[in-house]
Specification:
The complex is a heterotrimer of chains A (256), B (218) and C (50). Chain B is mainly alpha-helical and 218 residues long. Chain B has 9 helices and no strands. The interface between A and C is large, with 39 and 32 residues.
Chain lengths: 256, 218, 50
């Protein structure tokens, strides 16, 4: 491929970044910077949020949970989106790195979903008087969690790596369609049950209440969660690339 | 394709595995519910739509791994892959055979079992209709899940794990329609969306499943 | 230094502790597996070169 005299186009250059060897190169250079940025923004955002914000009039100090809850929820959804894109790129362009990135994203996304669910439940107890309500948002997150579990389980169950990559990608794409569908289904379901409960009102109030004083640290911790996700994604993908190479070498050794 | 369809129906009726088993399982689930929740008729009538839908859904799960499992083991599927029939059609034939042998009998049995749970006649009709519209989606999604877990040894549990989250929309709208009908409210929207899910599944999943089958047969 | 969290101190603190623990655990697992795979791979490559 390198011997072709034609100058590489921009898209060639972009896809070359996904070549495993080149990926290992640039990711190892980039990783310390992203990790440092993640740590810095996460720490400053959370410390700002925890120590230096005032309490909300209605929610008291529980408003501080928002600095964990919202970023985690954001990354839970973006994680699935990323898996979807990774799966598509793998099925269309057969870029190993992309499917390995999807594989590495799944456990992090699952943990983010768990954090969002757990902090939501802890916040809900004093605010709504219960840990869990079958509110549309909560329910969709529970379903999202199940999708993550299924995806990870399918990866673990299939021995052959390429087959596993293909099948999990098909699952991720079908799952994304059904996750969207579930989102709307759940909305319909709960509205049908009881319209305009205190739950949705509290939810709405939460949105209106975000003033700048709350918003700035929130933005910072959102960036922190995002960068942390990226850091773990890069680490995980690098691990998977190496693990893949390890398998190949071991197989070769057995033949020799 | 039609021959394959007929053959699958014949097989499942004759072997007695999927056909009767799903119905009996459904009956047992419905029988166990009053034991768990108490025999109060008005309380049973409230939960009946959900219980019947859930029971039908679980009964549907039972026979899913048989859809492709046996044919994969004895090599029939490899032969089918080399035949001029595309794997998408194989999937459709098998999913429809599965529906005809589980979804259809379950839908027809549900109103009868509804009597046990104090479900009135009118609601029973809607229950039957909602199951008729909704169970095709269950069979289609289930067959897709089965094609994904084809190569996995003892994939039954994994199959349920993959398939159950995908069943959520159908379950929501199906049970919702029956519940609304029970309260004498408008239920058309839920039924329309339920059939839309079934049709959408029939439009998209053959390609996903065909791809999964090809990957597994590689 | 500690902010006054009022009557919700338990909720706020527990959610911070739990979330940071979860993030710590997943990050730890990723780094640990990364190191393990890198070590085994390095050993194998060294053995093959030799």
């Amino acid at each position: 491929m390198n011997s072709t005299p034609i100058a590489p186009t921009l898209s060639d250059r972009f896809w070359r970044l996904a070549n495993p060897k080149i990926f290992m190169g640039w990711s190892s250079k980039l990783l310390p910077w992203i990790a440092a940025a993640a740590l810095a923004s996460l720490c400053s955002g959370l410390i700002w949020g925890y120590f230096f914000t005032s309490d909300d009039m209605r929610q008291g100090s529980t408003v501080k949970i928002i600095y964990l809850h919202v970023p985690a929820a954001l990354m839970a959804i973006n994680g699935y989106l990323l898996m979807f894109v990774g799966a598509l790129v793998w099925l269309i362009r057969r870029q190993h790195v992309s499917v390995l990135a999807a594989k590495a994203a799944a456990p992090v996304g699952m943990v983010m979903t768990l954090i969002a669910l757990a902090t939501g439940a802890i916040w809900g107890q004093p605010m709504w008087g219960t840990y869990w309500v079958w509110d549309p948002r909560l329910t969709s997150f529970l379903i999202l969690f199940l999708f993550y579990v299924g995806y990870i389980a399918l990866w673990a169950a299939i021995e052959d790596e390429d087959t596993a990559a293909d099948l999990t990608s098909v699952l991720a794409i079908v799952g994304a369609v059904f996750a969207m569908l579930s989102r709307y289904a759940v909305l319909f379901w709960n509205q049908g049950l009881h319209q305009g409960t205190t739950v949705t009102m509290a939810d709405g109030a939460k949105q209106e209440n975000i003033s700048d004083a709350f918003f700035q640290p929130l933005l910072l911790s959102m960036a922190g969660f995002g960068l942390l996700f990226l850091t773990l994604l890069l680490i995980g993908t690098r691990t998977e690339v190496r693990a893949r190479r390890l398998k190949v070498l071991q197989a070769r050794e057995r033949i020799e | 394709m039609i021959q394959l369809f007929l053959r699958d129906i014949g097989l499942s009726v004759r072997s007695g595995g999927g056909f009767g088993l799903a119905l009996i399982f459904f009956l047992i689930v419905v029988t166990l519910i009053p034991f768990a929740l108490g025999p109060d008729p008005s309380a049973l009538a409230v939960i009946a739509p959900g219980v019947l839908w859930l029971g039908a859904l679980l009964a549907c799960l039972l026979s899913l791994d048989r859809i492709f499992g046996l044919d994969f083991e004895d090599g029939t599927l490899d032969l089918l892959a080399t035949s001029p029939l595309p794997l998408e059609s194989v999937y459709m034939a098998k999913a429809s055979a599965h529906w005809l042998t589980t979804g259809l009998p379950l839908s027809l049995a549900a109103p009868v079992l509804g009597v046990l749970l104090n479900l009135d006649y009118e609601t029973g009709k809607i229950l039957c209709l909602s199951l008729l519209l909704g169970t095709p989606a269950l069979s289609l999604i289930g067959a897709f899940g089965a094609s994904l877990t084809l190569g996995v040894k003892r994939g039954g549990l994994l199959l349920s794990l993959l398939v159950l989250p995908l069943y959520v929309p159908s379950l929501i709208f199906g049970a919702q329609a029956v519940r609304l009908a029970g309260q004498a409210l408008e239920y058309d929207v839920a039924l329309v969306i339920l059939s839309a899910i079934s049709l959408g599944a029939a439009a998209i999943l053959p390609f996903a499943s065909g791809a999964a089958l090809r990957i597994n047969l590689r | 230094m500690m902010p006054d969290l009022g009557k919700y101190a338990l909720e706020v603190n527990s959610s911070y502790v739990l979330s940071l623990m979860a993030l710590g655990v997943i990050a730890g697992l990723y780094v640990k597996r990364n190191r393990a795979v890198r070590r085994v791979l390095a050993e194998l490559e060294a053995a093959q070169d030799a």
